[in-house]
Design a protein that fits this description.
Strand content: 5-15%
Radius of gyration: 21 Å
Low-confidence stretches: none
Protein name: Aminotransferase
Mean pLDDT: 96
Number of strands: 12
Helix content: 40-55%
Number of helices: 13
Shape: globular
GO molecular function: pyridoxal phosphate binding; transaminase activity
CATH class of the largest domain: Alpha Beta
Strand order of the largest sheet: 2-8-7-6-5-3-4
Distance between the termini: 47 Å
Structural class: alpha/beta
CATH superfamily of the largest domain: Type I PLP-dependent aspartate aminotransferase-like (Major domain)
Number of domains: 2
EC number: 2.6.1.-
Order of helices and strands: HHEHHEHEHEHEHEEEHHHEHEEEH
Family: Belongs to the class-I pyridoxal-phosphate-dependent aminotransferase family.
CATH topology of the largest domain: Aspartate Aminotransferase, domain 2
Organism: Furfurilactobacillus rossiae DSM 15814
Amino acid sequence: MQTQQRDLTQRLNTQLLAIKPDMIHSFDHEVSDIPNIIKLTLGEPDFNVPEHVKQAAIKSIEDNDSHYAPVPGTAKLREAAAHFLADRYGIQYDPQTEIVATVGATEAISDTLRAVTNPGDKVLLPGPTFPLYEPIIKLNGAEVIPINTEPNQFVLTPQQLQAAINEYGDDIKAIMLNFPSNPTGVTYTANQIEALADVLRDTNIIVISDEIYSELTYGQPHVSFAHYLPEQTLVLNGVSKSHAMTGYRVGILAGPAALIGRINLMHAFTVTSASNPAMAAAAEALGTEQGRHDTENMKAEYKQRRDFVYHTMTRLGFTIPKPAGAFYIFAKIPERLHMTDYDFCLSLAQTSQVAVIPGTAFGPGGEGYLRLSYAASMANLKTAMARLTTYMETH
């Protein structure tokens, strides 16, 4: 083990020194060693990658597809992504100039925020929201302007958006949206999106719309923000959630050519390009008829799990906005327990061997809530709900 005579950490990026570890992973790590724990913590599909998608990756390897790919991704993947976005959501992109394949949606988020923001810029962040956005914004020296959507059933209203614009004006560089939402599972109707687009239309605010859960909606089709405001919107998508391909690390970023060109430059400096076998698999997932149907069976299973967990927890006294997408339950902890969300989640893990994430991990509006991922087998969910029932009856 190397010894360090000086505290060199004080010479690091000062923005990085102020960043705290992600509570999702830190809490998950904290409870992982509890014997017999059922972890409903991480947002990762429990399904296997479809066989025909795996074979596409294998074929890429067997064909010695081992050289550098074009920086924005293979032509086949970008064409498949353009076809997917047009076919599913009616949004049109030129695969040559308006689409970039990234190393997961995470890289797309990072590249986009780093390319868009300067020190001192302000980024609107409706919350509760995925905790990755805030640290990336801050690492670039920009400022997060949180908007608490909890009073509005976790939906950003045009009035809230207009009030923020009135207050901060031209200092606002971008707004970061995520729907269907992690952590709430809430999504937006076409009318709600159109109303927000109308507020933004006469501004220079860039809309960064993270739609990675777009294929996992229940009861209403996903509508992309780019459908109403394409000239100002950058759309993030990918295959991690739709095809259970989290480990393949392929994201898709689409938007106006002038913006995409600059973000592609950031992408080139960061990773050069995504992996060839992974891109071959993603092209198969997004570009074939069979790939379009892969998600249907997964979605049917998620819906069954959602309904079971939602009804069980509602009966136990939790207040829950019924999720219209993704695979999360965001539940308000009953006030009668007189516990913070962190204390509740830690107590539940230690005494009943069920692990969920405290709502404070997701920023303003998450206090007093918990997030449960139902991307787990029905058998595990039934055991977890039985344990939760016992916990609630004895506390």
